[in-house]
Write a structure and sequence with these properties.
This protein is α/β, with parallel strands linked by helices. It has helices spanning about 15-20, 25-35, 55-60, 75-80, 115-125, 160-170, 190-195, 215-225, 230-235, 235-250; strands at about 45-50, 65-70, 85-90, 105-110, 130-140, 175, 180, 200-205, 210-215, 255-260, 265-270.
């Protein structure tokens, strides 16, 4: 099989599920970014692969201007509804600089692994002003992590959910019109080093917090993923959702779950 290539259906139909299914970034994330970079309300922010704007909106008050770019039209539409005052652009990261100018901070959150990394790293570097930074936000916002620590409610049955997705879509991870048998690319930090960035500086926030989630939120989390995006199911989507809800009710009849979240890692690189 040929190597996987990006196509515009990668996140098709998922944007409407983000607001419910993806847990919000904690306010402490913005405080940590501000303190680490000495931000004072001036300068510009560029959020690359911004999705529906979850991180962009959180960080925008730290800057004089914020720009969010994403390749998915549904994501940009959701972002514009959420924050019409931010400059949202439908654009692939590979098309940067795109006449956008220079920025104090360029952020990537749960997005760089989908990109042509070497190409994007080279194109973004001259867009960062000399005192600026590339900031990678490492987070998992659709689900928690396994933990031996007690939880106040049952955890979502993620192993069962993964098995149900595989039953409908097959055992190999779907991604747009292709598949990812080995997952997305790693070694992102090697890419940045080779591109001439210096760093990294690492900061972790909100390590080990516990969150409560509803049945609807877990269902939306599953449908917010590229690997189980609604379009993959076609006409079987209602049947999949019914089976998913039955699985969740078997684990928690009242539809209430709890999860322990992974700490959010802020990784700062300098141009």
């Amino acid at each position: 099989m040929d190597a996987w290539e990006w196509d515009e259906t990668l996140f098709a139909g998922t944007a409407a599920h983000y607001g419910t299914g993806r847990m919000p970034y904690p306010p402490g994330l913005a405080d940590a970014v501000r303190d680490a970079l000495g931000l004072d309300g001036t300068g510009r922010l560029l959020d690359v692969g911004c999705g529906p704007g979850s991180l962009t909106v959180l960080l925008a008050p730290l800057f004089a201007e914020a720009v969010g770019v994403d390749a998915d039209p549904g994501m940009i539409a959701e972002a514009r509804l959420k924050a019409p005052g931010i400059d949202w652009r439908r654009m692939r990261a590979e098309a940067l600089p795109g006449g956008l100018g220079t920025f104090r901070v360029v952020t990537f959150a749960q997005s760089f692994h989908w990109m042509e990394q070497e190409h994007v790293a080279e194109r973004v570097r001259p867009m960062i002003c000399p005192e600026g930074a590339w900031v990678h936000i490492g987070a998992t916002t659709h689900r928690g992590v396994e933990s031996d620590a007690p939880l106040p409610l049952p955890a979502p049955p993620w192993d069962g959910i993964d098995a149900l997705v595989a039953e409908y879509l097959g055992p190999v991870r779907r991604a747009g019109q292709g598949v990812l048998p080995n997952g997305t690319k790693g070694f992102e930090e090697d890419v940045l080093s080779r591109a001439g960035y210096t760093g990294p500086e690492r900061i972790t926030v909100d390590e080990g917090r516990t969150v409560e989630r509803s049945e609807d939120e877990v269902v939306a989390a599953v449908l917010s993923l590229s690997s189980s995006a609604p379009h993959h199911f076609g006409t079987r989507l209602p049947a999949f959702e019914a089976d998913l809800r039955a699985l969740l009710r078997g684990a928690a009849p009242d539809g209430r779950f709890a999860e322990r979240m992974r700490g959010i890692e802020i990784v700062v690189w300098r141009p």
